[in-house]
């Protein structure tokens, strides 16, 4: 039995840095023994099938393989299609009423305690807002991520130290759910 997963690579192909061509990423995944491989956009989204049920081991193997192939470290979060669907379903914001650029999900490599974000005064960022989910954070940024002061605050070292975290806009979240349906 195999499971369909999404691999979310952090910070590749941004402004010409950490360049990872998607065709080569598909090759790396195939060399790791995965099947039914596809990529989405150029920003490090890949789906694949694997017989493994260990998301952390899959992420670690992909991180090692990418580092060996391209010569630089890249954080990676691997999540099953059922997890991605559950995250989309649990969104506390009205995703159907918003533009994809207004809603984002940050996926973490492990559970995150609310205490990590307790020092942020959420009121000062309104109408922007965030909510924690299962190993993820939902961010509502009505003017988009690039103009979001809350996103900037959430990305500070105190909030992200020791984590692998990678953010996707809602359009990508929905597409990955679609691509990982069994």
From TrEMBL:
Annotated PANTHER family: BLL4334 PROTEIN, DUF1697 DOMAIN-CONTAINING PROTEIN
InterPro entries on file: DUF1697 (IPR012545)
Domain of life: Bacteria
Protein name from the UniProt record: DUF1697 domain-containing protein
Organism for this UniProt entry: Streptomyces nanshensis
């Amino acid at each position: 039995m195999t499971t369909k997963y999404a691999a979310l690579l952090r910070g590749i192909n941004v402004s010409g840095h950490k360049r990872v061509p998607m065709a080569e990423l598909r090759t790396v995944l195939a060399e790791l023994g995965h099947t039914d491989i596809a990529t989405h956009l150029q920003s490090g989204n890949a789906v694949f099938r694997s017989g493994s049920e260990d998301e952390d081991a899959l992420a670690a193997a992909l991180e090692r393989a990418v580092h060996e192939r391209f010569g630089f470290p890249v954080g990676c979060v691997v999540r099953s299609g059922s997890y991605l669907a559950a995250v989309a379903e649990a969104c506390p914001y009205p995703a159907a009423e918003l533009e994809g650029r207004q809603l984002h999900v940050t996926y973490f490599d492990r559970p995150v305690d609310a205490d990590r974000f307790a020092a942020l005064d959420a009121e000062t960022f309104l109408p922007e807002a965030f909510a924690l989910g299962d190993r993820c954070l939902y961010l509502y940024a009505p003017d988009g991520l690039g103009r979001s002061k809350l996103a900037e605050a959430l990305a500070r070292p105190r909030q992200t130290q020791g984590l692998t975290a990678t953010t996707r806009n809602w359009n990508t979240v929905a597409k990955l759910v679609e691509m990982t349906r069994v």
